[in-house]
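Extended Data, panel c. Modelled sequence:
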Amino acid sequence: MKDILKWFIFNGFGTFNYLIGGRMMEVGASDTATHPVMRQSVFQISVFNDAMIEKLREELPDSAAGFNHAAKDEPDWENQFWGDNLDRLRDMKQKYDPDNRFNCWHCVGYLENPNPESASYKISSYLAIIFSIFHFFATSF
């Protein structure tokens, strides 16, 4: 880990870290949806460029992506987010949401644009546009 952090320092150090662990380490690996690796981790490293992301993937192949800070184009996002819990979560998704009414980016069972003409898809698209406009104005002044 020391070598990875040194590499970050000499390559821009575009990162932030925060401690995790504590009581969450006492929860069983399959008691929640959280990736089991997150239950055993002491801290999370978040990086902001492709070279650093690739360095972490290369150096820590059995790690997980933090759900709130993952790359939008995470190549193996299902396994990076859910790990060994993925099959159990897929079974639950099929049981409780067989029609995939709750479809969201990087969620279990995500389908890209399953029906772009549906009312719920149009509403979520409009909300995304409204949020973008609001965010633009809120950060521009």
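The first strand starts at residue 15 and ends at 19. This feature is highlighted in the accompanying rendering.
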